[in-house]
């Protein structure tokens, strides 16, 4: 009797939410309008059930694996029964932080069984049967065992090929959805103007236009056209906003930017991706002008929703709601932090401890209204209804393995890696190499290291799934070619170097391919913070040092090659054997000595599972490289920041060196040669708009087919506010046969010509502009001035 009384009291405490008419619930009617279903379900939910929907727990603890069977864990059942959770994150993630290995983690078939079991419990053991929304890390492949691993984002943007990246994103989405995921975290739209920062590899580089195009491609590939169904997933944009320029390169640190720079540089990629239909946005750890992004009403409500019309849901980065108390110190208690965040417009909590009981307390004390709570919950439920999860939250287990790492996806990974390779130097046409060489020395810490090649946010993979540079070279040459491999040294550890053996191998070879750079390969010896970032400290004497010098948490004070890598390259070059250096890494590094003394340099970034094949394809000429740098390579950290589109006036030289980067944004060589000609501009002004057609010709003047990346930059010659010395506006990757010529036509509109005037209004000002066309930001082949006669005022959301 006592239990019945207590149950009755708990029902009464929920108020009218449970007073519903008899008959089938409207929210279960698939033919009813989505908004009606959302409101019907909200009306049936208790306060506890609503708050529970906003909690996104760490998913890898929510299944239990025994041999070849998998089911729900006690921790999961407890979370559903007591906390009414609505989401999980990284359920299928495997890496040293999660302590999931090839043995303890899930292959694609078991992954599908696990997500089905989780959904079945949520559907069959809860009062309302609300399905889960499962989010996964998907920046360069679904971060799960057995999936296709593509190049990291900095390599993706080096392709300058958004159509290819859209294909890649669609493949990632299909693999994730086949295993039960619904949300993919990505793309990362932070501008990387601080190469010391540990997460440069996750970005598309330093430029807002290139980043915007890559971000839009990812959103389209992830979500597909229309409702996010079938093989598609919701795209979560990261990290909103200005996260990629922390002071001193400290991950998650404060940033310094004014509102005009925020609008003109850091926000455009997010605006473009929102306009492309992105349904989820993740907040950044940093603050903007003293207001943390996770409690920033201007960003999350005024800008994102009222100006841009965003209709999806927002999510905190892991633990960032708690960070309002312990990190930023803008809230005195966790309850106050929960209220700050949700009132600002932050809908869901990635962690499970930022809202939960703290948000319940905030609602109870009146600091969060019932309307605000319903608003956040409604935004999440809307996605679940529109994805059809109430009708079918399950996946077909037997199909999962067939849809993951398919031959088509593997070939696509190879193509993305091929297009991402940037040829930095090719003195006396050392490259491409002949396949009939008698002897090749392959040297270096990244020549035959699987995980150093994959980058951060990559799961353990069976060795047979990954092709290293050594393996790629061996597969490319004939059986008669002798390929000798010597590691030479590690990335960071200086105790195990064997430079003498490397020198001997180089002396006995016709050419030496030296593969150096960096690593974001997590290991089980590293300690991790609650956010998943590594805990990094200066190395103590006698301590075993991992290769990892990049990836989340691994910020740098210098950009030098670490360990004895430079000494290794110098010793090999000193043998007199022709040397090709291949760089595998996640950020720009100091290449001054290499650029001056090594005949050929290739930058492959982290090229993914097919990286070895792709590098070999370029080395031996089966692929003509056309990758272009999405980020400038400095000569010294003393030059930073060194991005190409700095504000006027022009930068002057230092006492020790000039102010120019070693390699500028947009730079990259080819085995072919190209010529630009016949630049024309045509301005058409009509009521309320302006269009400028820019046309020119590009010709392949060599005897070899190749791709050229034609780039159009713009300079506003006189403006009411200071503008960039030059700004990329349009680009196109062109395939040209030997001797072929193509006409390229770009059309500039008001969005390309506008600026934020002194009154903070978007306008196109009348006056002179200079169109600059070329092969890189510092390799302008053609220039032409044009005039805009009439000014324009543009909408506030521009």
Automatic annotation (TrEMBL):
Domain Fibronectin type III-like: 708-777
Domain of life: Bacteria
GO BP term, pick one: glucan catabolic process
Signal peptide: 1-19
The UniProt record lists the keyword Nucleotide-binding: no
SMART domains associated with the record: Fn3_like
InterPro entries registered for this protein in UniProt: Cellulose_Degrad_GH3, Fn3-like, GH, Glyco_hydro_3_AS, Glyco_hydro_3_C, Glyco_hydro_3_C_sf, Glyco_hydro_3_N, Glyco_hydro_3_N_sf
UniProtKB keywords: Glycosidase, Hydrolase, Signal
SUPFAM superfamilies: (Trans)glycosidases, Beta-D-glucan exohydrolase, C-terminal domain
UniProt entry tagged with the keyword Transcription: no
Any one Pfam family match given in the protein's UniProt record, by short name: Fn3-like
Any one GO MF annotation of this record: beta-glucosidase activity
Family, as annotated: Belongs to the glycosyl hydrolase 3 family.
Protein's name in the database: Beta-glucosidase
Organism from which the protein derives: Hymenobacter nivis
């Amino acid at each position: 009797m006592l239990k019945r009384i207590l149950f009755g009291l708990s029902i009464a405490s929920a108020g009218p939410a449970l007073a519903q008419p008899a008959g089938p619930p409207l929210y279960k009617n698939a033919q009813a309008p989505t908004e009606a279903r959302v409101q019907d379900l909200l009306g049936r939910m208790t306060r506890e059930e609503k708050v529970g929907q906003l909690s996104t727990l760490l998913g890898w603890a929510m299944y239990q694996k025994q041999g070849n069977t998998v089911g729900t864990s006690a921790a999961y059942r407890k979370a559903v029964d007591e906390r009414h959770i609505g989401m999980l994150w990284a359920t299928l993630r495997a890496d040293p932080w999660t302590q999931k290995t090839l043995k303890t983690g899930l292959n694609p078939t078991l992954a599908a069984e696990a997500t089905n079991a989780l959904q079945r419990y949520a559907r069959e053991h809860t009062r309302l049967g609300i399905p889960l929304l499962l989010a996964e890390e998907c920046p360069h492949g679904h971060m799960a065992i057995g999936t296709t691993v593509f190049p990291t984002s900095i390599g993706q943007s080096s392709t300058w090929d958004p159509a290819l990246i859209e294909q890649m994103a669609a493949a990632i989405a299909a693999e994730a959805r086949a295993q039960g995921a619904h949300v993919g975290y990505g793309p990362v739209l932070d501008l990387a103007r601080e190469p010391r920062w540990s997460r440069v590899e996750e970005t598309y580089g330093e430029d807002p236009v290139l980043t915007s195009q890559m971000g839009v491609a990812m959103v389209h590939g992830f979500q597909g056209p229309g409702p996010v169904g079938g093989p598609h997933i919701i795209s979560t944009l990261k990290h909103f906003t200005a996260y990629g320029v922390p002071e001193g390169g400290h991950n998650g640190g404060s940033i310094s930017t004014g509102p005009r720079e925020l609008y003109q540089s850091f926000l455009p990629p997010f605006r473009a991706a929102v306009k492309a239909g992105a349904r989820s946005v993740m907040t950044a750890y940093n603050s903007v002008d003293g207001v943390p992004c996770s409690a920033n009403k201007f960003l999350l409500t005024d800008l994102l929703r009222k100006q841009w019309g965003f209709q999806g849901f927002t999510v905190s980065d892991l633990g960032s709601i708690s960070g309002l108390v312990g990190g930023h110190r803008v809230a005195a208690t966790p309850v106050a932090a929960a209220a700050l965040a949700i009132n600002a417009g932050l809908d869901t909590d990635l962690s499970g401890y930022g809202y939960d009981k703290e948000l319940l307390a905030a609602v109870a004390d009146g600091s969060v209204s019932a309307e605000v709570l319903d608003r956040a919950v409604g935004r999440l439920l809307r996605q679940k209804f529109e994805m059809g999860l109430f009708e079918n939250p399950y996946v077909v287990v037997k199909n999962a393995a067939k849809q993951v790492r398919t031959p088509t996806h593997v070939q696509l990974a190879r193509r993305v890696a091929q297009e991402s390779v940037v040829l930095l130097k090719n003195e006396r046409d050392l490259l491409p190499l002949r396949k009939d060489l008698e002897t090749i020395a392959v040297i270096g810490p990244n020549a035959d290291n699987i995980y150093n090649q994959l980058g951060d946010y990559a799961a353990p993979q069976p060795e047979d799934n990954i092709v290293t540079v050594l393996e790629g070279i061996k597969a490319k040459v004939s059986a008669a070619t002798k390929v000798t491999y010597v590691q030479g040294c590690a990335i960071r550890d200086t105790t195990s170097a064997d430079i003498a053996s490397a020198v001997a191998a180089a002396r006995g070879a016709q050419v030496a391919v030296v593969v150096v750079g960096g690593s974001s390969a997590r290991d089980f010896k590293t300690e991790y913070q609650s956010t998943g970032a590594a805990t990094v400290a200066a190395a103590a004497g006698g301590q075993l040092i991992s290769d990892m010098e990049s990836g989340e948490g691994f910020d740098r004070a210098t950009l030098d090659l670490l360990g004895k890598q430079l000494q290794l390259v110098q010793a090999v070059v000193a043998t007199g054997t022709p040397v090709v250096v291949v760089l595998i890494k996640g950020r720009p590094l100091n290449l001054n000595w290499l650029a001056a003394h090594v005949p050929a340099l290739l930058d492959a970034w982290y090229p993914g599972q097919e990286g070895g094949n792709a590098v070999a394809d370029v080395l031996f000429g089966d692929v003509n490289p056309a990758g272009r740098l999405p980020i400038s390579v400095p000569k010294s950290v003393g030059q930073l920041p060194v991005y190409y589109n700095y504000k006027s006036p022009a930068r002057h030289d230092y006492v020790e060196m000039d102010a120019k980067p070693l390699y500028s944004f947009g730079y990259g060589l080819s085995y072919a040669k190209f010529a630009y000609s016949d630049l024309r501009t045509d301005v058409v002004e009509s009521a309320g708009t302006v269009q400028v057609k820019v046309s020119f010709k590009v010709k392949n003047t060599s005897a070899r087919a190749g791709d050229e990346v034609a780039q159009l930059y713009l300079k506003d010659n006189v403006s009411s506010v200071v503008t960039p010395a030059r700004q990329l506006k349009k680009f196109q990757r062109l395939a040209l046969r030997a001797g072929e010529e193509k006409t390229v036509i770009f059309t500039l509109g008001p969005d390309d010509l506008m600026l934020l005037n002194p009154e903070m209004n978007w306008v196109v000002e009348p006056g002179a502009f200079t169109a600059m066309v070329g092969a890189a930001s510092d390799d302008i082949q053609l220039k032409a001035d044009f005039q805009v006669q009439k000014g324009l005022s543009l909408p506030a959301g521009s």
